[in-house]
Amino acid sequence: xxxxxxCSGQGRQDRGMFDVFxxxxxxxxxxxxxxxxxGRDVGTLLRDASEAELHANRTSQxxxxxxxxxxxxxxxxxxxxxxxxxxxxxxxxxxxxxxxTSEQTLRLxxxxxxxxxxxxxxxxxxxxxxxxxxxxVDVLVARFECAIAIVNPxxxxxxxxxxxxxARCCAAALDEGAVAARPxxxxxxxxxxxxxxxxxxxxxxxxxxxxxxxxxxxxxxSAADASIVSGARGVPGLAAxxxxxxxxxxxxxxxxxxxxxxxxxxxxxxxxxDMARGAYPVLDARSIDEFRALDGVTGWIERQAx
Length: 306
What we know:
Blueprint: E1 2-7, H1 27-38, H2 42-48, H3 51-54, H4 57-75, E2 81-85, H5 89-97, H6 102-119, E3 124-130, H7 134-143, E4 147-152, E5 156-162, H8 163-175, E6 180-184, H9 196-208, E7 218-221, E8 228-229, H10 235-240, E9 246-247, H11 248-257, E10 260-265, H12 271-279, E11 284-287, H13 294-305
Parallel strand pairs: 1-2, 1-10, 2-7, 4-9, 10-11
Antiparallel strand pairs: 3-5, 3-6, 4-5, 7-8
């Protein structure tokens, strides 16, 4: 059964997100690079930062990508496997696949966040709507000058726009029968036209990185169009994601069609594993955060591979 490693997006980071990796040699250089980018030791940051600091866009993106990189380095999962990423998680996926080194991945993630911050409105943000059809959500977001950022399975849509308008859109969705709808702790309208100004500078940074090809035995899937990424050819799609809707539902469908039956979410959080289980009961989907130690994850991978 084929294994897929899925790299999480931002918003689920927490103060204990690296605790399970304490003492892991593979984590040391990655966390040192994170500390250099964020200007202080990661442990100190997670202990002392306010919630606002923890969820600031640049900090959030770097921490979430680092979590996936540290996890993959600590596990060194047996090949072959497929890797894909949700939103900023695709940056981590490129690093896990070996297209970039961990240092390159983190520095490009910082550049991604900086270009997004420069292009974003000061009061932009994201929310979600669950339980309405796509056509009804399309009408709602247009009414409130928002946009659909991510299409997920089970009628779950991430929406983006000016924060007050996002909140109004979520309230209107509830009035129209949505199962749930509310703003979320991401302070930027990722994957919407509000970030069009970030695409060109981010593309330039990606081109300058001279991406390589994925490691032998690793297949990298793009969330832009569920295609296989071979390296530099994937750069235009990765840059374009900043202001374009991501169809994560189609990405999960493509993974299943490619024979994936085991999914491991690298975290932080369990949102992607939960989503995969719900959409495809055939999948044995787990998250790192469901295990107490890396030995448990390694054991699960080995048992499922037999």
